Amino acid sequence: MTMTNNANGIAADALSIAADRGFLNELAQVKARAALEILGADSDHINWTFQKRRLERNGIAGIFSLQTAANFSPKDVDQSSDVKIAALRLAQLWEALAAVSIEGSETALTTAAIGYEIAGYRANAATLAERLSQSSSDWPMAEMMTDFLKRKLLAVVANQTQLETTQQSYEDLTALVGAAADRLLGRALVVASLYLLGGNNNLEDAVDLLDQARDAYSRVSRFAESNMCYATATCLPLMEQRATWELIADASDSGLWKRYLKLIGRGTTGRPIDSRSLSELWPSQVSALQKGLVSSRESMVLRLPTSSGKTRIAEIAIAHQLSTDPSSRCLYVAPFRALVSEIENNFIRLFADLGIRVSSFVGAYDGDEFEQRLAEASDLLIATPERLDLLERTVPEFFDRVRLVILDEGHIVSDSTRGLKYELLMSRLLVRLPETRFMLMSAVVPDQAIEDFATWMQSSDSSIVTSEWRPSVQRVARFEWRGETGVIQY
Fold it and tell me: What CA–CA distance (Å, rounded) separates 229 from 223?
């Protein structure tokens, strides 16, 4: 039995439910009703045929089947597209049920978030966690649980420290056991958070604490909290499979590399306590790793959808290059000023904390002495093709240290006004820098062009990375007129 078949076998109930035509029909209906509820539209006149109780029963059975598979075979689950599709559909079911029913909506949202976690859609899970954090729950652990789902890991640690130091009195044994369960859950979330923050390999301790908390909640008939502990425990092995500490921690022994991993584990936006950890990689990024992102010096061509993680792939490549060869320099070529500014802001926020000098060089072919001096002093230069062309002609020695060139929006070579100059620049760089690694990224390069780019950069077919995966679920709609009324068909 293959690994994928093993996961599919354990999750057989979920796969069967998610593929059933009757279930899919009812799922489509409840999603449509949920959309109308969110928009505030009247849907009572519609003859809905879905049965809420039946959907709930199927949803419970399906999620339990997925949790069992994730618990016993996390690696197989992470590699099974069938299991992930089932998890996605069940997550969508619970999210829709939360919208159409006030009763039990918090439990439904939590279950949906767990389903999205299993499916690999962390953005959706985090969005639901944000909605949960705005609820009126009187459970003291609700905030810590939602912070963990949002990967605000320093906030999890801070909240647990406050909980542990707070003195409380308890009316009876039931209240005491419930409080003990809360603390066990909090400690489990802290242990898991410390793993994602710093790579401490003790997730098994977190699972043990969750099992103890689950048992304690069950003893005092707090079954919703008990089920939450079980669901969280099943997600931890999947988080480990996707964690940077599991996938790329050994890519370099450099202190800079370790600091980089800890920095993205903490998060780089806003106040540290409000930052969201970036220590888990998306499927598109894992695909790039499997094609040699940090294990090879071969040039790469990547075709990935918009917002599917191309910038993070470039970031990993840059951090790895500068950690393994501190005297080298990296170039990031972006065709538009706005894109250069966006990339620079993102990279400065990250790399400045690591002592890496980042600067940008934008505009047309006219020079600016101050900008040029900044460029010459940088470890990472982000530039438009026109300015890079100017730099090549005026300061050719700048390129002596360049060991990594990232070409964003590489399909611009087909642009009728700028494409030829861009192509000539790339050709000159390829000739000038024979020992340099090139990475061309685009969302829209056709298959034949991908192979042509790989040949041009002297890369093998094994260095081509393609993926259709996106980090969030998209809805496709068509607008049409019906008389004087506009209708959007999803």
Answer: 10
Report the pLDDT value the prediction gives residue 3, as an integer from 0 to 100: 47
Number of helical H runs and strand E runs in the chain: 22, 9
Distances (CA, A) of 435 to 207, 328, 378, 402, 429: 47, 12, 20, 9, 11
Strands (E), 288-410: 300-303, 329-333, 358-361, 380-383, 402-407
| Contacts by 258-266, CB closer than 8 A, 24 or more apart | 259/354, 260/319, 260/323, 260/354, 261/199, 262/197, 262/198, 262/199, 263/350, 263/353, 263/354, 264/350, 265/153, 265/196, 265/197, 265/198, 265/199, 266/153, 266/154, 266/197
- Distance between CA atoms of residues 169 and 175, nearest Å: 9
Find, among 120, 29, 39, 146, the residue nearest to 472 by Cα.
120
Mean pLDDT of 43-56: 91
> In whole angstroms, how large is the CA radius of gyration of the chain?
25
Stated as kind and residue range, the H or E segment containing 465 is strand 464-466
Domains along the chain with CATH numbers: 3-247 (no CATH), 283-466 (3.40.50.300)
pLDDT given at position 490: 67
Mean pLDDT of the chain: 89
Residue 411 CA to residue 446 CA, distance in Å, equals: 9
> What pLDDT score does 271 carry?
86
pLDDT, position 107: 84
Tell me phi and psi for residue 485, to 5 degrees: -110, 135
What per-residue confidence (pLDDT) applies to 150?
92
DSSP element (H, E) containing 432: helix 419-432
Q: What is the pLDDT of residues 340-365, one digit of tens each?
A: 999 999 999 999 999 999 999 886 55
- Mean of the pLDDT values across residues 130-156? 84
